[in-house]
Amino acid sequence: MEPLTELVIRAGARILAVDRAAAHVQVKQDRSPVTEADLAANSILIDGLSRLVPNALVISEECPQTVDPSRHQSFFLVDPLDGTKEFIAGRKEYTVNVALVTGGVPLLGVIGAPALGMLWRGIVGRGAERLTLRDGLRQAPQAIRSRRHPPGKPSLVAVSRSHSDERTAAMIRARGDIVRRRVGSALKFAWVAEGRIDAYPRLSPTREWDVAAGHAIVTAAGGAVTDSSGEPIKFGQMQTGFVVPEFVAWGDPAPIRRNRS
For residue 242, how many C-alpha atoms fall within 13 Å in the half-sphere facing its CB? Predict the structure, then answer.
């Protein structure tokens, strides 16, 4: 975990070194933007992972992958700059995401928010932590735990700043007394993991590298990430283009377990 933490911090520092006002923006085939900051962070992560874990399979948003991950027991999923739209807009709500997936399940995750000086990390079965980074120094990590919703209080739900869809909006409306918290990137997973919000639903397609690190951290913190029916999400689905059709990150998984039982 420590070498991966340092690697995410290095990638974040490289993003911070890019002049956003002068950064060239390209549009990829899927119509999403990419900048030199995305590519620079990607280079640091790919090179660093190859040194830390030689011969490991690394699947990144910025590196088209032709090797089927189903043939590997474990592999890394990387999003070098999650929230590129937030980065371009001058906001601080972007992250660097790295996850280790084993048997189709994210078991380790690191999410760094370089512009906020924050980092979250977790190992399923061993807990999750938040780190604060100030002036190049790391403060002692703090253990975090997902939120158990207090009875009689409004549910706090994270919604995307840059993406919206009617299915997600309908699900939120159906939950009754809701307070929405609008934020970009994988920070929404971090907020679930540290107990700032109750849930983060997204019932429209996204990609595995957007979800995997947050999945691991939320689970390590005591929460759960499932589909809208409470069923688990399988990772390494190359045949579908690594698409996650929908997910909900829950701070309290107890109701999900009761419904499934």
Answer: 23
